[in-house]
């Protein structure tokens, strides 16, 4: 059993001094990772968690050799990697199955790429299909399968090549909670067999309870650009009880680490406006409807709630809740002391107002943000018709570390709700309301 022998410190894969930037069409580089130093050891499960845009999936792909770092080196068993990692197989978030192929044919595709003979391919595919509990479904097509069964096919395909490390990129995000719970337990049972691979697992997740259940080490990342904030060792014995006090304490510890990064409870003196005339604060990926939903929920809770409880009660990912809270905080509708989310006096007035008054309050708060004042200035400069491409170029120049397309989407949904401007999608232009 691996959980009884994972005291080994043999390093299988390692990243040293990794930096990654992506070139944009404008010529500006978007840096997504900075100074990443991380290893994966034998007989362990490592989970990456952090806010949207922190580079979790990029780290996984660099480990796998699917993309190359801008700076730094990747090692496999102490040797520098130049191409694909030979010891890795990946389970993707979106199943990635060929719809015209049966379950068995989908699993065989990766084995055929290895140049194996037909008999070996059939034996390995059958073993992997049996391992994930899909016997009897070999001739079924993806359209006939539930989400959980499709993910089992993805798992079987990855396991069929006998990988030393199994990489999983948010593998349970597209299945229901009960199915996800079963799949987690099954993948750990497969990993825990000391007589076979995978030796280790690297998983990307946005679910704190999931990583506490799965991981021996939890790597907490911060964003813009992505950095390793801290690595938390998980000493809990397996199998783990999600209801135990020790489990819940570790969940709270990780929760506090992440929220202290994303929503720091620190009073910061405002800089003199004259010193930062062009400072633009980036927008979180939170549509106006999500922020409204958060405020409505807080109103039902008497105006205050624990951040983690909000995510649990609304069945929304913690990552999305964080984005909504950041958006509401930017608009001065909430404060975030410690782990609490509290409606401000303005937030209370907003949520209790009729729709017309809500829009007026929202519009006034938008105009407190430099980005929306900039849009108004650009609309005037372009005689009331601002092209999407021109605004995207402006965003890329002023917020080079941000995803300009995502910022544009958020800006449009906020601006539309406040009737600050209209977006004519068919023409790709913004116009005044």
Number of helices: 16
- Report the biggest beta sheet as strand number plus sense, adding barrel if it closes: 6 strands, mixed
CATH class category name of the largest domain = Alpha Beta
The strand order across the widest sheet is 6-7-8-3-9-10
Number of domains: 2
**In whole angstroms, how far apart are the ends?**
65 Å
Radius of gyration using CA atoms only: 24 Å
User: What is the fourth-level CATH superfamily of the largest domain?
Assistant: P-loop containing nucleotide triphosphate hydrolases
Mean pLDDT: 86
CATH level-3 fold name of the largest domain: Rossmann fold
Task: Describe the fold and architecture.
By secondary structure, the chain is an alpha/beta fold. The chain has 2 domains: 2-258, P-loop containing nucleotide triphosphate hydrolases (Rossmann fold, 3-Layer(aba) Sandwich); 288-432, Arc Repressor Mutant, subunit A (Orthogonal Bundle). 42% of the residues lie in helices and 20% in strands. The protein is built from 16 helices and 16 strands. It has helices spanning 2-5, 56-64, 103-112, 118-131, 147-159, 177-191, 208-214, 245-262, 288-300, 307-314, 318-330, 345-352, 355-366, 370-381, 388-398, 404-417, and strands at 11-23, 29-41, 45-49, 71-76, 79-80, 88-91, 165-169, 200-204, 217-222, 227-233, 304-306, 334-335, 340-343, 386-387, 421-424, 429-432. The strands form 4 sheets. A 6-stranded mixed beta sheet has the order 6-7-8-3-9-10, with helices on both faces. Strands 2-1-4-5 form a 4-stranded antiparallel beta sheet, covered by helices on one side. A hairpin with a 4-residue loop joins strand 9 and strand 10 (227-233). Helix 4 crosses helix 5 (147-159) and helix 9 crosses helix 11 (318-330). Mean pLDDT is 86; it is low at 266-277.
């Amino acid at each position: 059993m691996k959980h009884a022998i994972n005291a080994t410190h043999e390093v299988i894969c390692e990243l040293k001094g990794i930096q990654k930037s992506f070139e944009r069409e404008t010529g500006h580089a978007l840096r997504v990772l900075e100074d990443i130093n991380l290893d994966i050891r034998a007989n362990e499960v490592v989970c990456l968690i952090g806010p949207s845009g922190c580079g979790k999936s990029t780290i996984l792909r660099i480990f796998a050799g699917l993309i190359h770092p801008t700076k730094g080196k990747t090692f496999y068993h102490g040797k520098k990697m130049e191409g694909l990692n030979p010891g890795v197989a990946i389970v993707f978030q979106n199943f990635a199955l060929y719809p015209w192929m049966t379950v068995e044919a989908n699993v065989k595709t990766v084995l055929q790429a290895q140049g194996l003979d037909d008999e070996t391919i059939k034996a390995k595919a059958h073993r992997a299909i049996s391992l994930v509990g899909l016997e009897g479904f070999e001739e079924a097509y993806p359209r006939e399968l539930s989400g959980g069964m499709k993910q089992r096919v993805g798992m079987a395909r990855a396991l069929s090549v006998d990988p030393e490390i199994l990489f999983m990129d948010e593998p349970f995000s597209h299945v229901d909670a009960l199915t996800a719970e079963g799949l987690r337990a099954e993948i750990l049972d497969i990993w825990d067999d000391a007589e076979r691979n995978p030796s280790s697992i690297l998983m990307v997740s946005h679910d704190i309870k999931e990583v506490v259940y799965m991981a021996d080490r939890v790597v907490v990342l911060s964003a813009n650009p992505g950095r390793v904030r801290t690595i938390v060792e998980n000493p809990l014995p397996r199998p783990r009880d999600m209801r135990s006090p020790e489990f819940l304490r570790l969940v709270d510890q990780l929760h506090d680490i992440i929220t202290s990064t994303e929503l720091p409870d620190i009073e910061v003196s405002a800089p003199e406006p004259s010193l930062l005339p062009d400072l633009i604060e980036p927008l979180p990926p939170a549509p106006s409807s999500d922020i409204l939903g958060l405020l409505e929920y807080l109103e039902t809770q008497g105006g205050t709630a624990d951040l983690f409880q909000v995510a649990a009660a609304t069945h929304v990912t913690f990552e999305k809740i964080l984005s909504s809270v950041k958006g509401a905080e930017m608009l001065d509708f909430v404060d975030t002391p410690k782990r609490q989310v509290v409606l401000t006096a303005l937030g209370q007035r907003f949520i209790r107002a009729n729709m017309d008054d809500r829009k007026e309050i929202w519009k006034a708060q938008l105009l407190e943000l430099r980005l929306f004042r900039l849009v108004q200035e650009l609309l005037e400069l372009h005689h009331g018709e601002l092209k999407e491409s021109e605004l995207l170029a402006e965003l890329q120049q002023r917020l080079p570390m941000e995803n300009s397309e995502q910022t544009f989407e958020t800006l449009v949904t906020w601006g539309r709700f406040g009737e600050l401007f209209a977006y004519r999608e068919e023409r790709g232009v913004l116009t005044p309301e």
